[in-house]
Design goal:
The complex is a heterodimer of chains A (271) and B (250). Chain A is α/β, with parallel strands linked by helices. Chain A has a single domain, classed as Glutaconate Coenzyme A-transferase (3-Layer(aba) Sandwich). Chain A has nine helices and 15 strands. Classes of the chains: A alpha/beta (271), B alpha/beta (250).
């Protein structure tokens, strides 16, 4: 059974310097509160894994917590560039980062292979692109049809962190709306932290809801509003204004650092 | 309705929307492709299935979404699937008719770059990267590319091949085992480029009302071939323009 613990304790217990950490959530349910707690606790040398490193990873990269980034799309959705991500890759500020990039289909199959404890995932993809020369992908021949297929190595994060709408007191979790790749990321990881909007006495399964049993989760932490400026469907709304404002905040190194000092380091974890 | 003069971007969006008049399903990202698809559904094709990368299939947004995962897309969709399901069950098997893609660079065979400008290891500009584009372009029934028409975008040589369009020309897609037809149109604010049926090299086949063929050729970074008969695209009607502006103002 997952333990229900305060966010600060959960992060201190489960995430170590140098870990490969996946904070997942595809536009929806992005675990901002947990990511900010990583910054407050000064976690460093992380290998950060995420299909869409959006604002949260821009922040982690900008404070220098990231040593290596594994991803498939590094943009501010609907707005444009991630300036901290760009500054790190283009200018090495605040430090150079190593990158490993894939396509979405590749990353999704890497997580799915990780969840299945298979060594690799199989797909039709990558062929003819320059990605082949710059990332970890290989091609094999299907033994049954002879078709050439791409194989990508499974992802097995040390820790996966996700945000969900609710958990019960035994740490069983339910999320609904856009499910992204969270179930796969949870099942692929060694250790799992889930932050939730609310703790309920009894989970009522919803059509289309994703249920994750507490016995594959290490810790659940209550973090109401913990996906903002992303959102938790039916509970909070996506703060599209903030995504647009982030463009100006993140463009300038000093403005970024002062924003982090005020809005992340200057605050304490909820609950 | 606003009486402002028609902008080049509006002509581009309406042209893209018309292209979706008979499609069953369209895969879209945010920005102009999304606006075009929502407009197509409103004006010509109420049964058009809008598919967003976030997993929402059959979304019916009233507003133009800022992100592919806005709550409105989840609330109005026919079904919502996970990312692995989206790619493995819907996109790569070829279940989506049209994929709409943008890019920072396009070459004469409609290959796309959305990864870097400059050298990969030391890029001048780091772009977001592949996202879903390579597999969307390989798997969807056909691809419509929506980009700006200038010499920075339509280039002689891509800095990075993120997404294969027609590779090095005729036969390339077949050799790579791709199932879809690949890019069938590159829609810009000056006109439409379509692959030559034999060579697969892009040719200018139509221009927007008021655009000279020479303008489009001059704004292209390679020696752009021009079709024998270049059509002039019917300008957006009063109704089309009113619908687009009303949609954008929501």
């Amino acid at each position: 059974m997952a333990e229900i613990v305060p966010l600060r304790e959960a992060v201190a217990e489960l995430v170590r310097d140098g870990d490969a950490v996946a904070l997942e959530g595809f536009t929806h349910l992005i675990p901002f509160a947990a990511g900010h707690e990583l910054i407050r606790q000064g976690r460093s040398e992380l290998e950060l894994i995420r299909m869409t490193p959006d604002i949260l990873y821009d922040q982690l990269i900008g404070v220098g917590a990231c040593r290596r980034l594994v991803f498939s799309y590094g943009g501010n959705p609907g707005v444009g560039s991630l300036h901290r991500f760009r500054d790190a890759i283009e200018n090495g500020w605040p430090r150079a980062i190593e990158i490993e990039e894939h396509s979405h289909a590749g990353m999704a199959n890497r997580y799915a292979a990780g969840a299945a404890h298979l060594p690799c995932g199989l797909l039709r993809g990558y062929r003819g692109t320059d990605l082949v020369a710059h990332t970890r992908v290989a091609f094999i021949q299907c033994p049954f049809t002879g078709e050439e297929l791409a194989v990508v190595p499974a992802l097995a994060p040390d820790v996966t962190v996700i945000h969900a709408q609710e958990a019960d007191r035994d740490g069983n979790v339910q999320l609904w709306g856009i499910p992204g790749v969270q179930k796969e990321a949870v099942l692929a990881a060694d250790r799992v932290l889930v932050t939730v909007e609310r703790i309920v006495d009894r989970i009522e399964p919803r059509p289309g809801g994703v249920l994750i049993p507490g016995w594959v989760i290490d810790a659940v932490a209550l973090a109401p509003g913990g996906s903002q400026p992303s959102y938790s469907l039916d509970i909070t709304e996506r703060d599209n204004d903030f995504y647009m404002r982030w463009d100006a905040i993140s463009r300038d190194r000093d403005a970024f650092t002062s924003w982090i000092d005020t809005h992340v380091r200057g605050k304490t974890a909820v609950a | 309705m606003s009486t402002a003069a028609l902008s080049a971007a509006e002509a581009q969006t309406v042209t893209a929307a018309r292209r979706l008049a008979r499609a069953r399903s369209v895969f879209i990202g945010v920005g102009r492709p999304s606006t075009a698809a929502i407009l197509a559904r409103a004006l010509y094709n109420p049964r058009l299935v809008l598919v967003y990368e976030s997993g929402t299939i059959g979304a019916k947004p009233f507003h133009i979404p800022l992100s592919i995962g806005d709550g409105e897309l989840a609330h109005t969709s026919d079904l919502i699937v996970s990312v692995p399901e989206m790619f493995n069950y819907w996109i790569t098997p070829g279940r989506i008719d049209v994929g709409c893609l943008g890019a920072a660079q396009v070459d004469r065979f409609a290959n796309l770059n959305s990864t870097v400008i400059g050298d990969y290891a030391r890029p001048k500009t780091r772009l977001p990267g592949a996202g879903g584009a390579p597999e969307i372009a390989a798997g969807c029934g056909e691809v419509v590319v929506i980009v700006a028409h200038d010499r920075r975008t339509l280039v002689q040589r891509l800095d990075f091949v993120t997404t294969v369009g027609h590779g090095d020309g005729a036969g390339a897609r077949e050799r790579l085992g791709f199932r879809g037809a690949g890019p069938t149109a590159v829609i810009t604010e000056l006109g439409v480029l379509e692959p030559d049926p034999q060579t697969r090299e892009l040719r200018l086949t139509s221009v927007h009302h008021g655009v000279e063929v020479g303008d489009a050729v001059a704004a292209t970074g390679w020696e752009l071939r021009v079709a024998e008969h270049v059509e002039v695209i019917e300008p957006p009607s009063v109704d089309e323009l009113a619908a687009l502006r009303e949609l954008s103002s929501r």
